[in-house]
Amino acid sequence: MADVYNEINLKLVFLGSGGVGKTSLVNALTGKVVPDRYMPTIGSTINKKEYLLEDSNYLVSVNLWDIGGQRSFNPLNPVFFSNVDIAFLIYDITKPQETIAELNEIYLPNLLQNTGECLIFILGNKIDLEFEKKAIKDILKQERFDKYPNILVSALHQENIEAAVEYATYNYFIEMSEELKENNVKINAEKLLDVYGKSKVELEKILINLEDISSMKIQKKAPVKVSKKKLENTEMELERYRLIQERLEDLETIKEQIRASFRNNLITIEDMIQELKTTPISSLIKNINKTLTQLDYLKGDFELKLNSLLNMDKLAKQKEPPLSLKSTTESEGN
Questions:
Q1: Helices 22-29 & 161-175 angle (0-180, nearest 10)
Q2: Model confidence pTM above 0.70
């Protein structure tokens, strides 16, 4: 068996509102524990899913980018969308109307505006809970998402998520077959099926709208729906104080998540440097430009995480309630 493989790196982004389960899906894919309660992702984290094609001497590395969905922590940076090959737009099947609408209002427009063509898939997470399949399909059709591959998954039960990545990667190699040939890459989609140990028909079983799919490519001129959303005002100051107090206990866990993300980003930088060292001269300039773009992203991500840490420290120091709230909470305890 060869010690060195030709590595093909793909970028797969997980997009969606906070709490839909993006981090849990990535954890399920990478063999990590799926958390039993929600912890927001700060900025983004990068993990890797690899497929080894020993006969062809190729390693397909799917870089899984978990983009934080809490807008208070994570303003959408256009760099998130640079060099995207595959996009998973995630919604929560227990809150389909709200989370699917947000995909259409926020995430799809940003994807259309800031990335070139890539493959897009719509994933409904949490099918381990009760849901109405027909109602979800109606909402997806209403939001014009029925033309893209729709897949229902469960991070908790690890249902369909592995197959979703396999199906997406398989279709990427179908779409890129001509370019791969031009670059003398001796790998095709059929060889991936051998690695998966599945047929195309078996992979397609995870789709809930196989008959409706018109294209898996993002079209730059696809219509984008514009709608208004009313934001509810903050309710009572006492309720706000209680909510902040509850979140305080999670701050240390979030900080550790940020530190772990720093370490992951450093590993990513080391991998990029190693990849440049083995790049043929003919494509070196192209790869250097791509690496510079990724480094620019990592710099911005570092600054975002650093600011988030500083803001959390400030938040932790602001938790002494005003006297009026103190007397209220004390009287409730008596």
A1: 80
A2: no
